[in-house]
Amino acid sequence: MDPDCEPLDRALYPANKVHDPLDMGSMRYKWRKSIVFACNWKVALEAFDEIYHVQETHRQLLEWQDDISASAAHGRHGMCALWPALPLGYRSRRLGGPLHDDVRPGIAAYMQELKDTLDFGAADEMVVAANRVMQEVAPGAGPDVALGKYMEFLYEQLEREGSAAPSVTAEEAYALGSDWHFFPNQILLANATGVLGYRSRPNGHDPDSCIFDCYSLVRYPGGEPTAKVEVQWSEDAADEAFWGLILCQDYQNMAEVQKGLKSRGFRGARPNPVQEIPVSNFHRALHEFLQSD
Protein backbone atom coordinates (compact mmCIF):
# COMPACT_ATOMS: atom_id res chain seq x y z
CA MET A 1 0.00 0.00 0.00
CA ASP A 2 1.28 3.45 -0.91
CA PRO A 3 1.20 5.77 2.15
CA ASP A 4 1.55 8.76 -0.18
CA CYS A 5 -1.26 7.83 -2.55
CA GLU A 6 -3.80 10.33 -3.79
CA PRO A 7 -6.77 10.80 -1.40
CA LEU A 8 -9.69 8.62 -2.47
CA ASP A 9 -12.17 11.51 -2.64
CA ARG A 10 -9.91 13.33 -5.07
CA ALA A 11 -9.22 10.20 -7.13
CA LEU A 12 -12.94 9.50 -7.57
CA TYR A 13 -13.98 13.09 -8.29
CA PRO A 14 -16.41 14.01 -9.84
CA ALA A 15 -17.96 10.54 -10.14
CA ASN A 16 -18.31 10.26 -6.37
CA LYS A 17 -20.11 13.60 -6.08
CA VAL A 18 -22.54 12.69 -8.85
CA HIS A 19 -23.46 9.51 -6.94
CA ASP A 20 -23.61 11.05 -3.46
CA PRO A 21 -27.40 11.75 -3.66
CA LEU A 22 -28.04 7.99 -3.97
CA ASP A 23 -26.68 7.21 -0.48
CA MET A 24 -25.19 3.94 -1.74
CA GLY A 25 -23.56 3.42 1.64
CA SER A 26 -26.95 2.31 2.97
CA MET A 27 -27.28 -0.38 0.28
CA ARG A 28 -26.24 -4.01 0.71
CA TYR A 29 -25.61 -6.91 -1.63
CA LYS A 30 -28.60 -8.59 -3.26
CA TRP A 31 -26.33 -11.02 -5.10
CA ARG A 32 -22.63 -11.35 -5.98
CA LYS A 33 -21.31 -13.42 -8.87
CA SER A 34 -17.82 -13.94 -10.31
CA ILE A 35 -16.16 -15.70 -13.23
CA VAL A 36 -12.80 -15.96 -14.99
CA PHE A 37 -13.02 -14.69 -18.58
CA ALA A 38 -10.66 -15.59 -21.42
CA CYS A 39 -9.93 -11.96 -22.13
CA ASN A 40 -7.89 -9.06 -20.79
CA TRP A 41 -9.44 -7.09 -17.92
CA LYS A 42 -9.75 -4.01 -20.12
CA VAL A 43 -11.68 -5.91 -22.81
CA ALA A 44 -14.25 -6.98 -20.21
CA LEU A 45 -14.74 -3.38 -19.05
CA GLU A 46 -15.11 -2.03 -22.58
CA ALA A 47 -18.11 -4.33 -23.11
CA PHE A 48 -20.03 -2.17 -20.62
CA ASP A 49 -18.52 1.21 -21.47
CA GLU A 50 -21.08 2.10 -24.14
CA ILE A 51 -24.79 1.62 -24.76
CA TYR A 52 -25.11 1.16 -28.50
CA HIS A 53 -24.28 -2.57 -28.23
CA VAL A 54 -27.89 -3.01 -27.12
CA GLN A 55 -28.99 -2.90 -30.78
CA GLU A 56 -27.37 -6.29 -31.45
CA THR A 57 -26.45 -7.79 -28.08
CA HIS A 58 -29.81 -7.23 -26.37
CA ARG A 59 -32.03 -6.77 -29.39
CA GLN A 60 -35.12 -8.00 -27.52
CA LEU A 61 -35.05 -4.80 -25.43
CA LEU A 62 -35.49 -2.55 -28.47
CA GLU A 63 -39.21 -3.28 -28.46
CA TRP A 64 -39.51 -1.02 -25.40
CA GLN A 65 -36.26 0.97 -25.24
CA ASP A 66 -34.50 3.27 -27.66
CA ASP A 67 -30.71 2.94 -27.45
CA ILE A 68 -29.62 6.16 -29.18
CA SER A 69 -26.98 7.35 -26.71
CA ALA A 70 -24.26 9.86 -25.92
CA SER A 71 -21.22 9.75 -23.65
CA ALA A 72 -18.80 12.04 -21.86
CA ALA A 73 -15.46 12.10 -20.04
CA HIS A 74 -14.98 13.57 -16.56
CA GLY A 75 -11.31 13.52 -15.64
CA ARG A 76 -10.26 9.88 -15.43
CA HIS A 77 -13.87 8.75 -15.33
CA GLY A 78 -16.49 8.40 -18.06
CA MET A 79 -20.23 8.04 -18.41
CA CYS A 80 -22.90 7.03 -20.92
CA ALA A 81 -26.46 8.31 -21.13
CA LEU A 82 -29.65 7.82 -23.09
CA TRP A 83 -30.21 11.57 -23.31
CA PRO A 84 -30.97 11.51 -27.07
CA ALA A 85 -33.21 8.45 -26.77
CA LEU A 86 -36.99 8.27 -26.95
CA PRO A 87 -38.73 7.94 -23.56
CA LEU A 88 -38.78 4.47 -22.02
CA GLY A 89 -41.70 2.42 -23.31
CA TYR A 90 -41.35 3.47 -26.94
CA ARG A 91 -40.08 1.13 -29.63
CA SER A 92 -36.51 1.92 -30.70
CA ARG A 93 -35.98 4.03 -33.80
CA ARG A 94 -33.73 1.22 -35.04
CA LEU A 95 -36.89 -0.90 -35.39
CA GLY A 96 -38.94 1.86 -36.95
CA GLY A 97 -39.67 4.07 -33.98
CA PRO A 98 -42.92 4.56 -32.03
CA LEU A 99 -46.00 2.82 -33.37
CA HIS A 100 -48.26 4.30 -30.67
CA ASP A 101 -48.62 7.11 -28.15
CA ASP A 102 -49.23 4.86 -25.14
CA VAL A 103 -45.97 3.94 -23.34
CA ARG A 104 -47.68 2.15 -20.45
CA PRO A 105 -47.54 -1.38 -21.95
CA GLY A 106 -43.92 -0.82 -22.94
CA ILE A 107 -42.93 0.24 -19.43
CA ALA A 108 -44.65 -2.80 -17.92
CA ALA A 109 -43.13 -5.23 -20.45
CA TYR A 110 -39.66 -3.73 -20.05
CA MET A 111 -39.67 -3.98 -16.25
CA GLN A 112 -40.91 -7.56 -16.39
CA GLU A 113 -38.18 -8.40 -18.91
CA LEU A 114 -35.49 -6.94 -16.64
CA LYS A 115 -36.89 -8.88 -13.69
CA ASP A 116 -36.93 -12.15 -15.65
CA THR A 117 -33.55 -11.80 -17.37
CA LEU A 118 -31.36 -9.76 -15.00
CA ASP A 119 -33.11 -9.27 -11.62
CA PHE A 120 -30.93 -6.46 -10.30
CA GLY A 121 -31.82 -3.74 -7.83
CA ALA A 122 -35.45 -3.33 -6.82
CA ALA A 123 -36.70 -5.52 -9.69
CA ASP A 124 -39.79 -6.84 -7.90
CA GLU A 125 -40.86 -3.36 -6.85
CA MET A 126 -40.21 -2.05 -10.37
CA VAL A 127 -42.66 -4.61 -11.77
CA VAL A 128 -45.28 -3.70 -9.15
CA ALA A 129 -44.92 0.01 -9.97
CA ALA A 130 -45.12 -0.59 -13.73
CA ASN A 131 -48.26 -2.70 -13.35
CA ARG A 132 -49.85 0.08 -11.31
CA VAL A 133 -49.15 2.45 -14.20
CA MET A 134 -51.10 0.13 -16.48
CA GLN A 135 -54.01 0.06 -14.04
CA GLU A 136 -54.10 3.64 -12.74
CA VAL A 137 -52.80 5.89 -15.54
CA ALA A 138 -54.97 6.78 -18.52
CA PRO A 139 -53.74 5.53 -21.94
CA GLY A 140 -53.48 9.04 -23.38
CA ALA A 141 -51.60 10.55 -20.44
CA GLY A 142 -48.31 10.82 -22.34
CA PRO A 143 -44.81 9.53 -21.51
CA ASP A 144 -43.91 12.27 -19.02
CA VAL A 145 -46.99 11.55 -16.91
CA ALA A 146 -46.66 7.77 -17.20
CA LEU A 147 -42.97 7.73 -16.26
CA GLY A 148 -43.52 10.24 -13.49
CA LYS A 149 -46.26 8.05 -12.02
CA TYR A 150 -44.03 5.00 -12.38
CA MET A 151 -41.36 6.63 -10.21
CA GLU A 152 -43.99 7.79 -7.71
CA PHE A 153 -45.42 4.27 -7.42
CA LEU A 154 -41.92 2.75 -7.13
CA TYR A 155 -40.97 5.03 -4.25
CA GLU A 156 -44.31 4.32 -2.55
CA GLN A 157 -43.73 0.56 -2.81
CA LEU A 158 -40.22 0.80 -1.35
CA GLU A 159 -41.43 2.98 1.51
CA ARG A 160 -44.26 0.54 2.18
CA GLU A 161 -41.68 -2.25 2.52
CA GLY A 162 -39.46 -0.24 4.84
CA SER A 163 -36.65 0.35 2.34
CA ALA A 164 -37.40 3.91 1.24
CA ALA A 165 -35.03 5.48 -1.28
CA PRO A 166 -33.73 9.08 -1.12
CA SER A 167 -35.31 11.56 -3.49
CA VAL A 168 -33.23 12.60 -6.51
CA THR A 169 -33.77 15.81 -8.45
CA ALA A 170 -34.15 15.90 -12.21
CA GLU A 171 -30.73 17.56 -12.49
CA GLU A 172 -29.11 14.85 -10.36
CA ALA A 173 -30.75 12.08 -12.40
CA TYR A 174 -29.56 13.74 -15.61
CA ALA A 175 -25.97 13.81 -14.32
CA LEU A 176 -26.15 10.11 -13.40
CA GLY A 177 -27.05 9.15 -16.97
CA SER A 178 -27.13 5.39 -17.52
CA ASP A 179 -23.74 4.24 -16.26
CA TRP A 180 -20.40 5.52 -15.00
CA HIS A 181 -16.92 4.09 -15.40
CA PHE A 182 -15.02 4.72 -12.16
CA PHE A 183 -11.34 4.62 -13.08
CA PRO A 184 -9.73 2.20 -13.27
CA ASN A 185 -11.86 -0.91 -13.14
CA GLN A 186 -15.43 -0.37 -11.91
CA ILE A 187 -18.64 0.37 -13.81
CA LEU A 188 -21.89 1.25 -12.04
CA LEU A 189 -25.45 1.43 -13.33
CA ALA A 190 -26.92 3.22 -10.32
CA ASN A 191 -30.08 4.94 -9.17
CA ALA A 192 -31.66 5.63 -5.81
CA THR A 193 -33.46 2.26 -5.73
CA GLY A 194 -30.54 -0.05 -6.56
CA VAL A 195 -27.21 -0.63 -8.28
CA LEU A 196 -25.79 -3.02 -10.85
CA GLY A 197 -22.00 -3.10 -10.66
CA TYR A 198 -19.19 -4.62 -12.71
CA ARG A 199 -15.57 -4.97 -11.65
CA SER A 200 -12.77 -6.43 -13.78
CA ARG A 201 -9.39 -7.47 -12.36
CA PRO A 202 -6.18 -8.90 -13.85
CA ASN A 203 -5.90 -12.65 -13.31
CA GLY A 204 -2.39 -12.95 -11.97
CA HIS A 205 0.19 -12.44 -14.73
CA ASP A 206 -1.99 -13.79 -17.55
CA PRO A 207 -2.88 -10.88 -19.90
CA ASP A 208 -5.37 -13.09 -21.76
CA SER A 209 -7.69 -13.69 -18.80
CA CYS A 210 -9.32 -11.69 -16.03
CA ILE A 211 -11.48 -12.07 -12.95
CA PHE A 212 -14.87 -10.48 -13.50
CA ASP A 213 -17.20 -9.63 -10.63
CA CYS A 214 -20.85 -8.66 -11.07
CA TYR A 215 -23.12 -7.62 -8.21
CA SER A 216 -26.41 -5.98 -7.32
CA LEU A 217 -27.07 -3.63 -4.40
CA VAL A 218 -30.43 -2.82 -2.79
CA ARG A 219 -31.79 -1.37 0.43
CA TYR A 220 -33.16 -3.85 2.93
CA PRO A 221 -35.82 -3.14 5.56
CA GLY A 222 -33.82 -2.65 8.74
CA GLY A 223 -30.67 -2.01 6.72
CA GLU A 224 -29.31 -5.56 6.46
CA PRO A 225 -30.20 -8.76 4.56
CA THR A 226 -31.47 -11.64 6.68
CA ALA A 227 -28.49 -13.80 5.66
CA LYS A 228 -24.94 -13.09 4.47
CA VAL A 229 -24.76 -12.82 0.69
CA GLU A 230 -21.81 -14.97 -0.39
CA VAL A 231 -19.98 -14.73 -3.71
CA GLN A 232 -21.16 -17.35 -6.20
CA TRP A 233 -18.68 -18.55 -8.84
CA SER A 234 -19.38 -19.88 -12.30
CA GLU A 235 -17.14 -21.47 -14.93
CA ASP A 236 -19.73 -21.09 -17.69
CA ALA A 237 -20.42 -17.67 -19.20
CA ALA A 238 -23.34 -19.18 -21.14
CA ASP A 239 -25.16 -20.54 -18.05
CA GLU A 240 -28.42 -18.61 -18.37
CA ALA A 241 -29.89 -20.16 -15.22
CA PHE A 242 -26.97 -18.70 -13.24
CA TRP A 243 -26.36 -15.35 -14.96
CA GLY A 244 -29.67 -14.54 -16.64
CA LEU A 245 -30.13 -13.89 -20.35
CA ILE A 246 -28.85 -10.30 -20.46
CA LEU A 247 -25.47 -11.01 -18.85
CA CYS A 248 -24.99 -14.14 -20.98
CA GLN A 249 -25.56 -11.97 -24.04
CA ASP A 250 -22.95 -9.49 -22.77
CA TYR A 251 -20.42 -12.24 -22.17
CA GLN A 252 -20.79 -14.18 -25.41
CA ASN A 253 -18.10 -12.51 -27.53
CA MET A 254 -15.45 -11.48 -25.01
CA ALA A 255 -13.09 -14.38 -25.76
CA GLU A 256 -13.48 -13.75 -29.50
CA VAL A 257 -12.66 -10.06 -29.06
CA GLN A 258 -9.49 -11.06 -27.21
CA LYS A 259 -8.49 -13.34 -30.08
CA GLY A 260 -9.19 -10.56 -32.56
CA LEU A 261 -6.75 -8.26 -30.77
CA LYS A 262 -3.96 -10.65 -31.79
CA SER A 263 -5.00 -10.84 -35.44
CA ARG A 264 -2.48 -9.76 -38.08
CA GLY A 265 -5.25 -7.63 -39.56
CA PHE A 266 -5.88 -5.64 -36.37
CA ARG A 267 -4.24 -2.22 -36.51
CA GLY A 268 -5.82 -0.73 -33.41
CA ALA A 269 -9.28 0.21 -32.19
CA ARG A 270 -11.21 3.22 -33.52
CA PRO A 271 -13.75 4.09 -30.81
CA ASN A 272 -16.84 6.04 -31.79
CA PRO A 273 -16.28 9.73 -30.88
CA VAL A 274 -19.88 10.18 -29.68
CA GLN A 275 -20.91 6.89 -28.09
CA GLU A 276 -17.55 5.49 -26.92
CA ILE A 277 -15.90 8.46 -25.25
CA PRO A 278 -15.52 6.47 -21.97
CA VAL A 279 -13.51 3.80 -23.83
CA SER A 280 -11.06 6.33 -25.28
CA ASN A 281 -10.90 8.25 -22.01
CA PHE A 282 -10.21 5.08 -20.04
CA HIS A 283 -7.17 4.20 -22.14
CA ARG A 284 -5.92 7.79 -22.06
CA ALA A 285 -6.22 7.91 -18.28
CA LEU A 286 -4.60 4.51 -17.86
CA HIS A 287 -1.69 5.49 -20.12
CA GLU A 288 -1.13 8.72 -18.19
CA PHE A 289 -1.39 6.93 -14.85
CA LEU A 290 1.20 4.32 -15.83
CA GLN A 291 3.52 6.92 -17.35
CA SER A 292 3.47 8.91 -14.12
CA ASP A 293 4.21 5.91 -11.90
Short description:
The chain has twelve helices and eight strands.
Descriptive account of the structure:
With 293 residues, this protein is an alpha+beta fold. The protein has a single domain, classed as Naphthalene 1,2-dioxygenase Alpha Subunit, Chain A, domain 1, CATH 3.90.380. 37% of the residues lie in helices and 19% in strands. The protein is built from 12 helices and 8 strands. The protein has an 8-stranded mixed beta sheet. Strand 4 and strand 5 form a beta hairpin. Helix 5 (104-117) runs antiparallel to helix 6 (123-136) and helix 6 (123-136) crosses helix 7 (143-160). It is globular and about 55 Å long. The model has no long low-confidence stretch (mean pLDDT 96).
Number of domains: 1
> What is the third-level CATH name, the topology?
Naphthalene 1,2-dioxygenase Alpha Subunit, Chain A, domain 1
Q: Which CATH architecture is right?
A: Alpha-Beta Complex
Integer-rounded radius of gyration: 20 Å
Distance between the termini: 14 Å
* Largest sheet: number of strands, sense, barrel closure: 8 strands, mixed
- Helix count, DSSP H or I runs of 4 or more residues: 12
Judging from the principal axes of the Cα atoms, what is the shape? globular
Segments where pLDDT lies below 50 for 5+ residues? none
Strand order of the largest sheet: 2-3-4-5-6-7-1-8
Question: Beta-strand percentage?
Answer: 15-25%
Structural class: alpha+beta
Number of strands: 8
- The helix/strand series, from N terminus to C terminus, equals HHEHHEEHHHHEEEEEHHHH
